[in-house]
Amino acid sequence: MTTIFNRLARGRPPGAKIELPHQNSPQILLDWLLQHWTNPDICLRDIRAYAPRPVRHEEIAISSAEALARHGWLSELPAHRHDRRVWRIDRKPIIHPTVPTE
């Protein structure tokens, strides 16, 4: 026996696939760092608390920061604790900086 919902859904096209924002999260993080973050250093805790929502998840924040470090926008600093990650922001005089997608 089919329900009313099955009969109504029979003629509908499949739903659109929603893309996750973490594909471009290094660019989102870079834009936010250069436009809003005034301190010369940033730690993982600051990213998770103050960055835009698509970047706040721990794994996405770490992978975005590491991608920015690979492209020269961040450089990792030694932290005073073993479980803390700290980066120095290397600001460059570029009008609209972009991070190449990998």
Structure notes:
With 102 residues, this protein is an alpha+beta fold. It contains 4 helices and 3 strands; from the N terminus they run H-H-E-H-H-E-E. It has a domain of 70 residues: Orthogonal Bundle (Arc Repressor Mutant, subunit A), CATH 1.10.10. Helix content is 37%, strand content 11%. A hairpin with an 8-residue loop joins strand 2 and strand 3. It starts with a helix and ends in a 13-residue tail after the last strand.
Keywords:
102 residues, elongated, alpha+beta, three-stranded antiparallel beta sheet, single chain, Arc Repressor Mutant, subunit A, 37% helix, 4 helices
Write the layout of secondary structure elements.
Layout: H1 4-9, H2 25-36, E1 41-43, H3 44-50, H4 58-70, E2 74-77, E3 86-89
Antiparallel strand pairs: 1-3, 2-3
Helix pairs in contact: 2-4
